[in-house]
């Protein structure tokens, strides 16, 4: 028995919650390193401060995948309870994040935020496979990418919008996150919970008995328990997952480098507006520590030092707003990629492997161009447009290829286990991998983006390892 094909708006509603998920990810990706710098983190330590994010994914996603496969609630179904729980926790973390008073507090909230987003995200991937026949799965993942693109662009532009349009200040005292960023995170929290509720209230899931009918057999496999099942899945993962894992490794290493180091790299190399170090302007005691007055206000060396710091900090904040805004372009171009692919795949067959290969090559080129455009921020539009083609493909093609080769009864678990190929490269990058490779090329922070470009090119050619015809070929519905 075949699953019925769904109409566009049915697929749109079931994917709409990804708008909120992407608001969380985009604010995190475009603004988190800025928050760390504002709170006094050294540039080379920023990737390590991000390590909580991939660690949360490594632990949470397989567990959530397993639990969502085993869950059935008469009102909320299988996946939707996890959407709702993740949205509530994520919204709380988003509200608190910009009010962090220290680096350790921001890093801790990043752990909570990323773990909470993961609770919502992987069940969304599995929901597409649950609801759609194989002939519509590429179409479904592409629509998810379309919604993700909208969320990326809007969320990345929020701090600049708050400052330029609503006149909310992007300046603050040393060590304090600007009000424009705080309001952006509040908006993100509202959008996150609101968009998840649209999916929860508008989408009906198939019951376990209906899923058995679609499979043509009952699921009689013995439940060995969560730990044994997850470990067993790691040990016996299909070949297609291992090959896609190599592609994912290089892809996500590249994007982690962008999320963690694009702001310090681009504000310095493109805008010539690095974050000023307060120690260079403030009065210091004999131990080199910053001195404060009775009200815990920093004492500057003199009035000119205070004015110089505020001028440089204003340039940095304006540059950071613009970097975040231009990073949002990769959301727009991924949306364009998804839109074109949606129309094309509704009528014509595609070779998923070659689509992914070509898209990753374009993204790698986008990163490499950044080194050659100091002082020319407008060229970042081209760079992030190319990067968006890669991002749009990363969010759709690997999952479409994998879902064509996995049993639906294990879809949530498999999607969660597949996440190891997303988080492991990020952990390696966070533990010093990206900074180490960057310094092999040169001391300039822009070389982190060069490393990202090289890794995306390696990811592109790794697609040639994939030979499973069922995974590669897509026929329209």
What would you note in describing this structure?
The protein is mainly alpha-helical and 477 residues long. The chain has a single domain, classed as Growth Hormone, Chain: A, CATH 1.20.1250. The chain is 70% helix and 1% strand. The chain is built from 20 helices and 2 strands. It has helices spanning 8-15, 17-38, 46-49, 52-70, 80-96, 103-131, 134-164, 179-202, 208-215, 226-235, 239-269, 303-327, 329-345, 352-369, 380-394, 397-403, 411-418, 420-441, 447-462, 469-472; strands at residues 350-351, 473-474. It has a two-stranded antiparallel sheet. The longest helix has 31 residues, at 134-164. The two termini are 16 Å apart. The mean pLDDT is 86.
Summarize the structure.
With 477 residues, the chain is mainly alpha-helical. It has one domain (8-214, 225-474): Up-down Bundle (Growth Hormone, Chain: A), CATH 1.20.1250.
Beta-strand content bin: under 5%
How would you describe the oligomerization state of the chains in this entry? single chain
As for the CATH topology, it is Growth Hormone, Chain: A
Please tell me how large the radius of gyration is: 23 Å
The residue ranges in which pLDDT falls below 50 over 5 or more consecutive positions are none
Number of continuous helical runs? 20
Number of strands: 2
Helix and strand sequence = HHHHHHHHHHHHHEHHHHHHHE
Q: Report the helical percentage.
A: over 70%
How many domains, as an integer? Answer: 1
Distance between the termini: 16 Å
Q: If strands are numbered along the chain, what order do they take across the biggest sheet?
A: 1-2
Q: Looking at the structure, what is the overall shape?
A: globular
CATH architecture: Up-down Bundle
CATH fourth-tier homologous superfamily:
MFS general substrate transporter like domains
Look at the structure and give the mean pLDDT. Answer: 86
Largest sheet: 2 strands, antiparallel
Structural class: mainly alpha
* CATH class category name: Mainly Alpha
Transmembrane segments: 12-36, 48-68, 80-96, 102-119, 139-156, 183-203, 244-262, 327-345, 354-373, 379-401, 413-440, 446-466
Organism: Christiangramia salexigens
Pfam families: MFS_1
Membrane topology: Multi-pass membrane protein
């Amino acid at each position: 028995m075949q699953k019925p094909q769904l109409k566009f708006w049915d697929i749109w509603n079931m994917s709409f919650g990804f708008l909120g998920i992407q608001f969380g990810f985009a604010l995190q990706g475009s603004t988190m390193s800025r928050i760390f710098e504002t709170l006094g983190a050294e540039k080379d330590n920023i990737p390590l401060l991000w390590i909580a994010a991939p660690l949360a994914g490594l632990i949470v996603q397989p567990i959530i995948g397993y639990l969502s496969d085993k869950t059935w609630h008469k009102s909320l179904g299988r996946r939707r309870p996890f959407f709702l729980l993740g949205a509530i926790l994520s919204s709380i973390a988003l509200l608190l994040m910009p009010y962090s008073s220290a680096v350790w507090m921001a890093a801790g909230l990043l752990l909570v935020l990323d773990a909470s987003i993961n609770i919502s995200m992987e069940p969304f991937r599995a929901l597409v496979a649950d609801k759609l026949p194989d002939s519509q799965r590429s179409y479904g993942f592409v629509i998810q990418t379309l919604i993700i693109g909208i969320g990326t662009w809007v969320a990345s532009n929020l701090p600049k919008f708050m400052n330029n349009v609503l006149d909310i200040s992007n300046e603050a005292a040393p060590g304090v996150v600007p009000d424009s960023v705080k309001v952006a995170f509040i908006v993100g929290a509202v959008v996150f919970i609101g968009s998840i509720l649209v999916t929860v209230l508008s989408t009906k899931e198939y019951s376990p008995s209906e899923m058995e009918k679609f499979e043509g057999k009952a699921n009689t496999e013995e439940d060995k328990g969560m730990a044994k099942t997850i470990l067993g899945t790691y040990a016996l993962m299909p070949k297609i997952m291992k090959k896609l894992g190599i592609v994912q490794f290089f892809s996500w290493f590249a994007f982690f480098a962008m999320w963690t180091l694009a702001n310090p790299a681009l504000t310095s190399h493109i805008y010539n507006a690095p974050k000023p170090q307060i120690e260079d302007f403030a009065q210091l005691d004999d131990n080199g520590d910053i001195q404060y007055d009775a009200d815990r206000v920093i004492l500057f060396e003199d009035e000119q030092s205070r004015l110089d710091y505020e001028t440089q900090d204003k340039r940095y904040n304006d540059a950071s707003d613009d970097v975040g805004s231009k990073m949002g372009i990769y959301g727009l171009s991924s949306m364009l990629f998804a839109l074109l692919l949606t129309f094309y795949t509704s009528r014509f067959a595609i070779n998923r492997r070659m689509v992914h290969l070509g898209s990753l090559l374009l993204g790698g080129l986008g990163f490499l161009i950044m080194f050659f455009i100091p002082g020319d921020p407008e060229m970042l539009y081209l760079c992030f447009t190319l990067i968006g083609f890669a991002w749009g493909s990363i969010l759709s093609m690997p999952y479409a290829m994998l879902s064509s080769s996995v049993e639906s009864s294990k879809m949530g678990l498999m999607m969660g286990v597949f996440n190891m190929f997303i988080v492991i490269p990020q952990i390696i990058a966070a533990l010093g991998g990206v900074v180490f490779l960057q310094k092999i090329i040169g001391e300039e922070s822009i070389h982190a983006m060069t490393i990202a470009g090289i890794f995306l090119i390696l990811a592109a050619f790794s697609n040639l390892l994939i030979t499973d015809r069922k995974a590669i070929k897509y026929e329209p519905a």
